[in-house]
Design goal:
Layout: E1 9-17, E2 21-29, E3 36-44, E4 47-53, E5 58-66, E6 71-75, E7 78-80, H1 87-99, E8 101-112, E9 123-133, E10 145-151, H2 155-160, H3 167-180
Parallel strand pairs: 4-9
Antiparallel strand pairs: 1-2, 2-3, 4-5, 4-7, 5-6, 5-10, 8-9
Length: 182
């Protein structure tokens, strides 16, 4: 069986800082050929997505405008990890800020690399149960979010019919489905 090895970095040069991510160029050497190649890498902070469930089997979801696709998307709450926060703290904070909901027993149920070809970050998936709306929302100035309670049984159809299109949300829903099965 062929064993692959990481490519050693010869030189790493910062190229740009865009507040929520930076871009760098890494000159790396192929272990197979010995040739050098220049790769562009996007350094991002880690992200968290939250599967939030109410006691009556509804999922707390959000609708929000997405600038990249120029669409309003049905998603789960989530966001970027602040310095010093772990996934549990970030997920609970984002859930509360975006929806006003809080819950019990937050648990990391999965993680993935959003795009390991060019990005350095990890996206964590949390599950929070017994959620209830106990706070007012605390939206960032650039956010406009509407909270939606969706019956859990409707989620697969919303993915199948294209209502839910955000790839990281679909991954989180898949991880949730695997986690909750015996």
């Amino acid at each position: 069986m062929k064993m692959l090895r990481p490519w050693p970095t010869k030189v790493s040069r910062p190229l740009a800082d865009y507040r929520v991510f930076t871009v760098r160029s890494d000159l790396k050497t192929s272990p197979r050929t010995g040739n050098e190649h220049d790769f562009f890498v996007i350094d991002c902070v880690n992200w968290v997505n939250v599967i939030a469930l109410t006691p009556d089997d509804k999922m707390v979801m959000v609708e929000q405008y997405r600038h990249g696709s120029n669409t309003i998307e049905l998603e789960i709450p989530g966001g970027m990890m602040d310095g010093g926060e772990g996934p549990l703290e970030t997920g609970c904070r984002e859930l509360r800020e975006e929806t006003g909901y809080v819950g019990e027993n937050p648990l990391v149920i999965g993680q993935n690399y959003p795009n390991p070809a060019i990005m350095t970050n990890t996206c964590f998936t949390l599950c929070v149960r017994n959620c209830a709306c106990t706070h007012a929302t605390e939206l960032d100035p650039g956010e406009d979010i509407a909270t939606r309670l969706i019956p859990l049984a409707q989620i697969p159809e919303l993915v199948a019919n294209g209502t839910i299109l955000h790839s990281l949300v679909i991954v989180a829903l898949y991880q949730f489905n695997l986690w909750r099965k015996p």
